[in-house]
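Bench notes, afternoon.
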Amino acid sequence: MGRMIKVGMAELDICLPPDAITTLGLGSCVGVVLYDPIKKISGMVHVMLPDSTKIKNNDNIAKFADTGIEELLRRVIAKGATRRALVAKIAGGAQMFAFKSDSDMLRVGERNVEAVKAKLAVLQIPVIAQDTGKNAGRTIEFYPENGELLVKSVGKAPYKI
């Protein structure tokens, strides 16, 4: 077993076996894994917000679905991943408040998931597994050796997607 690479909020990183990669405390944020199942090259980004074009102070590209996924794609390809082979797994995007509202400010999780899926669709990267929405925070761990994404959520047994 290799080391566990930690991706913080609004960060991204690359991972090759035998290492694994994790991000903690995904609430309304979405963890996106890009993975080449043949070469076993992977990367993860912890997306906080859907759209960099809506924010003035947007120099942290990993924070946003649009720029974060583009940068992650650039880095996994630079590591040697085959563009056409890439698949995605996503988790997070929870609604972290108990009250229901149509306010966009409160639908951040849902909007993050929509933005992530839209960006992946534009890039023609299929989402092969997802665990999104609901109201529980998640921690995820990705193992490029076997392509498993382990999802840990409070009060539930860890499960693989």
